[in-house]
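Lesson 9: reading folded outputs for more than one chain in a single document. The general rule is that every protein is listed as its sequence immediately followed by its structure tokens, and records are never interleaved. Here is the first one.
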Amino acid sequence: MTISNKTKVDGIFSNPVKTVDRVVVSFPKRMFYYLVRIPVSLFFMIFYGNRFFGYNNMPTTGGLLVVANHQSYYDPPLIAAGLRRRLNFLAKKQLFKFKPLAILIDFLDAIPLDIDGIGYEGIKISLKRLRNGEAILIFPEGARTWDGEIGEFKKGSLALAKQTKSSILPTAIDGCYKAWRRENKLPYPFGKIRVIFGKPIEYDDFKNMSEEELRELVKTKISELLQKIKIQ
């Protein structure tokens, strides 16, 4: 996820955190989300022996930016299957044009993503949801890895956390790269996948940091988690 320069409109990043009306997710959508998690969890468990670590590190309330390395298409549903709270996703606007997929995305309340960044509309929606105490998943590398290593984090990728005073949950994924590499059209149906949730980084821990310093801090945390999970 990146934030393009042309989307940094005055009023979006200049306003302090403010109280907004809470948006209550409809009961059908909430039920759909949790029902979908069941087959998704079973899929990863059966084919990849998936395991999650760091459950106790997850904040149960408050705005939360879940920040992870990006290895494959598996990453979003995989993290959603392990996170104990409802997760908001980012989805490219082109996906909304395919009606069957658009229905699924709508039921998941996905946030529209522009080709060159999160975009003006996506920024407004993301800020509102974080201020409402929701959790949003982002991949600050902006794209899936080509070699399994963690790439550079895009500028502006963590600005949402600073603007909303949200906590950041460093998350590392291992095994998805081997299961479904970027150059492969289809996944390999067997393997071992591991996910670890690190200790949250609270707003007070990074409020005085520059955005560049925050990116380096979070990247270091995720790299450390990735090395830890490789031996599990």
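And here is the second record, again sequence then tokens.
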Amino acid sequence: MNKLKISIVVPFYNTPIIYFEKCINALKRLEPYEVILVDDCSNDEEIIKLAKNSGFKYLKTPYQSGHDGLPLNIGAKEAKGDYICRVDSDDILLELPKKMTKDICFGHQSRIKPAFSITIDELILAPRALCNAIVAKREIFLKYPFSQDSNVFGDVLFVLQILYNKHSFEVFKKINYIYRKRENSIQTSKPCFYHRLRNIQTVARLCQLENILQDESLRLLRLAMLNAEHGFKAMKFLNNKKIKNLNMVKK
């Protein structure tokens, strides 16, 4: 058994059983301290039965929230481990860290650029899902609960708060998480500009939550506007100095 007391929290809602079953079976092979499956009021009886018969702890949200913020926060409060790991119900966690030398260990995902040397500016210019397979001290999850507002990226906001408050972090050295891209998810069913607007709102929420001063808030929001205008090319535009008033954006 892993010497680290890691509680894995898996929010789910009507996950296709072919994916959910693979997710659960992979977690059984890891033998973590505990696994908590948090049901966001699924109505698929087959999925509910699978979760309840998994041998893991089964919890249910008081209402159907529509995203993973509420179930993740419920799981974090119920967790008994010293660390918490977040896993999506349709993905596969391959390995957990054997030891922790930092407050946080980011997962090394397939299809996602790892968080090596990640900064606030970089994440705003090129937001991405870095919370899959993240392992962090339980008190960090409790201090920065995931947003339950669908207008912001809860996972991006969580990482931005970690970075802003200078928590120490490392990244798992090899790929330890299989990240699936499913059709009809919110990421694939909405146009790109919709997500870029959510990024702006996410940055605004960070500034509010952390009481960031006006000048720095405006600088961060200008970075979010660069992403809104240029998408994944925003970093390139900034680095190549192809934008006006560059000194207003760069520190």
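What the second record shows: The domain at 6-183 is CATH 3.90.550.10 (Spore Coat Polysaccharide Biosynthesis Protein SpsA; Chain A).
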